[in-house]
């Protein structure tokens, strides 16, 4: 098991975001994470990336507790969130080269060139990031997260603000990553993106994983209608109070 | 560490407007001090240390405001925290950038104020005192900028938090600078220098010990 | 969220009663037992309150610093959240109480200074360092107010409390290290006080009385939440 998270609790000021969440990631597994706004998807990804600490519970990475100060564990994880984490005053290439140096990557130039090609950013390589559109920032941010070929790639709504062509490029890139043995966790609102790659579709509601649909299940039922059912069920449980469901 | 510093310096260089603005600002501050004290030749010498350090403090303050809040406005700090980077090196890189800024402004302020006040401020001893004192001030300032970057009122709070902590250092620095100008013997400066060196060491050690809990969650 | 006092009732009220009795005894000793100082006269009586508040103020900042160190140490080990809340509140209260006593020191000191030196304020090492110490901890309270997230607030103010504590030993040692006109009471040196045995006894009793008073105040002020914040989410999904 690559990542094993048990009984995660996270609270922001007075709002409980995660309440006893369990989550596991196997090697080379592609997990889609769906859930309504504010369900805690982003929080879960940030916890797994080590950017937040859980109030309770533990996260094990390769059997060792996730330590935000451990440099060896950071080599394993790649994360792209809502914020692109790029420097506006540097060019696209300078940004990637800077991060590649931080990760002590090998073959920096070829890796950067490959990623620019894969994400169709070749033409903007020497442009400053401050001139980039949202979709371009999104792609460059994903390139940044993939740079050091992490074994776990955490993506927070990677398909948002991507046009059809870019979404296709991303599909290809993610497919390549899974083939190379990386695990991917991706939050999304649109279930069609990346569905053909997914090994599992998890639904995060009320601070925990409410239901999980494996790959085999996706053939029998439409994931969209299944997802709506899960949400309805969770909603009715909430109305009827504790202890019934 | 070097990668970080290179990146920070490159970004500063890209923002070409900052350094000239800072230098003009610094010259203006030196002039304001001169007017404020209505310095006559008799008192100008005893006020020189205060004017130089007052000016450097203002210019450094502008640097601290930018060091951590510039990362935070775009959340790029998360990018550094995700990468296998020692957090103390993030701190040191930020500190060195401001220190370089302060040293550049010192190289402008000292000749300018020498001309304005007609006393020679350019000598090795004073440059050494300025480097030593500004190093400690930059260490304290970067540490406190990292703290105040979490607060809602960081622009106001930074000087409020920083100045009382740095006052012992600044007082010693002013005293040593004035001592040098008045041609005091080394033994008379020893205590002030010891305070400055002690302050530098304590602040750097504190930053080293606490960098893991200081930066990030 | 409801709160309760961290200290048990017997400790709170026991220390309060003891503090009141000792303060009464201290006032008696100051005015009727200790002799009137020859050169300074009656105004010297303020000195017993001055030195006791000075001690308690610095002790309180030490308490805050220790609580902050423990907070950071326990945060790293991820132990119980209630212990962290308790340490954070101890640190906050210790700073507030320390500031209160430091203010008493400064005010009593100013009256004494007016009587002996002829002015309320002199820029000499002890007064300067006390002023710096006061400003640092006042700034620390401002810092706390401006951070909303409780864990971040506790962490950031703990770090600042520890850095700020540097000012306490500097203040304490200032009259021992630098040439100053401020009198030195404990220890020997050029500026040391020549004290009669009855004066010394009164000083020691005053220090004890103020220490008990301090503990009583802290026992009353330190509150902890009764339960950890109830989480509606986990109840719903039970």
Structure notes:
The complex is a heterotrimer of chains A (245), B (217) and C (238). With 245 residues, chain A is an alpha/beta fold. Chain A has eight helices and ten strands. Helices cover 36% and strands 25% of the residues of chain A. In chain A, α6 (164-179) links the parallel β7 and β8 (183-187). Chain B has 217 residues and is mainly α. Chain C is 72% helix and 3% strand. In chain C, strands 1-2 form a two-stranded antiparallel sheet. In chain C, α1 (9-33) packs antiparallel against α7 (197-221), α2 packs across α5 and α4 (125-145) packs antiparallel against α5 (150-165). Chains in contact: A-B, A-C, B-C. At the A-B interface, α2, β6 and α3 of A face α1 and α4 of B.
**Share in β-strands of chain B:** under 5%
Rg of chain B, rounded, reads 18 Å
List the chains of the largest interface with their residue counts.
Answer: A-B, 32 and 24 residues
Radius of gyration of chain A: 18 Å
- Kindly state the number of beta strands of chain B: 0
How far do the termini of chain A sit from each other? 30 Å
Helix-strand topology string of chain A: EEEHEEHEHHHEHEEEHH
Class by SSE composition of chain A: alpha/beta
Proportion of residues in helical segments of chain B: over 70%
Neighbour order of strands in the largest sheet of chain A: 6-7-8-3-9-10
Task: Work out the helix count of chain A.
Answer: 8
């Amino acid at each position: 098991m690559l990542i094993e998270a048990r009984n995660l609790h996270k609270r922001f000021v007075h709002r409980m975001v995660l309440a006893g969440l369990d989550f596991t990631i196997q090697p080379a597994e592609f997990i889609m994470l769906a859930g309504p706004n504010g369900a805690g998807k982003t929080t879960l990804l940030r916890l797994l990336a080590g950017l937040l600490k859980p109030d309770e519970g533990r996260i094990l990475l390769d059997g060792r507790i996730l330590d935000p100060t451990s440099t060896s564990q950071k080599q394993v994880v790649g994360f792209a969130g809502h914020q692109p984490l790029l420097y506006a005053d540097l060019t696209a290439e300078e940004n990637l080269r800077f991060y590649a140096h931080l990760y002590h990557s090998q073959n920096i130039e070829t890796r950067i060139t490959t990623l620019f090609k894969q994400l169709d950013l070749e033409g903007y390589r020497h442009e400053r990031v401050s001139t980039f559109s949202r979709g371009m920032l999104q792609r460059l941010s994903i390139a940044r997260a993939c740079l050091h070929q992490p074994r776990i790639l955490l993506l927070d709504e990677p398909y948002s603000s991507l046009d059809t062509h870019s979404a296709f490029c991303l599909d290809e890139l993610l497919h390549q990553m899974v083939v190379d043995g990386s695990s991917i966790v991706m939050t999304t609102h649109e279930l069609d993106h990346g569905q053909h790659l997914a090994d599992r579709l998890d639904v995060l509601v009320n601070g925990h994983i409410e239901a999980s649909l494996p790959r085999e299940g996706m053939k029998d039922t439409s994931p969209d209608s299944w997802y709506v059912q899960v949400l309805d069920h969770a909603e009715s449980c909430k109305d009827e109070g504790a202890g019934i469901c | 560490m070097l990668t970080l510093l290179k990146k920070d310096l490159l970004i500063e260089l890209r923002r070409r407007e900052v350094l000239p603005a800072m230098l003009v600002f610094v010259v203006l501050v030196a002039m304001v001090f001169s007017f404020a004290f209505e310095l006559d030749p008799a008192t100008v010498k005893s006020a020189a240390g205060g004017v130089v350090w007052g000016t450097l403090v203002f210019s450094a303050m502008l640097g601290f405001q930018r060091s951590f809040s510039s990362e935070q406005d775009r959340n790029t700090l998360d990018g550094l925290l995700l990468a296998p980077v020692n957090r103390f090196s993030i701190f040191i890189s930020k500190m060195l950038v401001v220190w370089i800024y302060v040293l550049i402004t010192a190289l402008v302020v000292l000749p300018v104020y020498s001309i304005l006040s007609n006393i020679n401020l350019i000598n090795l001893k004073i440059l050494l005192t300025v480097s030593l004192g500004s190093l400690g001030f930059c260490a304290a300032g970067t540490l406190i900028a990292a703290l105040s970057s979490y607060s809602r009122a960081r622009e106001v709070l930074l000087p409020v938090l920083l100045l009382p902590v740095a006052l012992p250092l600044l007082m010693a620095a002013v005293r040593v600078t004035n001592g040098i100008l008045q041609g005091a013997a080394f033994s008379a400066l020893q205590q002030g220098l010891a305070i400055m060196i002690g302050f530098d060491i304590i602040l750097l050690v504190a930053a080293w010990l606490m960098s893991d809990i200081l930066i990030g969650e | 969220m409801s709160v309760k006092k961290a200290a048990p009732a017997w400790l709170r009220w026991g220390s309060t009663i003891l503090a009141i009795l000792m303060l009464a005894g201290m006032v008696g000793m100051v005015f009727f037992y200790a002799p009137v100082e020859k050169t300074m006269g009656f105004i010297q009586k303020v000195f017993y309150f001055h030195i006791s508040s000075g001690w308690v103020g610095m002790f309180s900042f030490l308490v805050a610093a220790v609580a902050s160190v423990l907070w950071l140490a326990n945060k790293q080990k991820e132990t119980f959240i209630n212990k962290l809340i308790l340490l954070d509140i101890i640190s906050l209260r210790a700073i507030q109480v320390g500031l209160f006593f430091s203010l008493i020191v400064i005010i009593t000191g100013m009256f004494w200074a007016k009587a002996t030196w002829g002015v309320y304020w002199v820029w000499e090492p002890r007064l300067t360092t006390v002023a710096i110490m006061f400003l640092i901890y006042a700034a620390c309270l401002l810092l706390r107010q401006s951070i909303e997230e409780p864990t971040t607030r506790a962490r950031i103010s703990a770090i600042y409390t520890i850095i700020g504590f540097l000012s306490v030993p500097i203040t304490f040692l200032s009259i021992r290290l630098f040439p100053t006109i401020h009198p030195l009471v404990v220890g020997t040196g050029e500026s040391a006080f020549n004290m009669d045995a009855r004066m010394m006894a009164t000083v020691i009793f005053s220090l004890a009385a103020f220490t008990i008073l301090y503990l009583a105040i802290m026992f009353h002020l330190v509150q902890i939440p009764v339960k950890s914040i109830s989480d509606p989410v986990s109840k719903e999904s039970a």
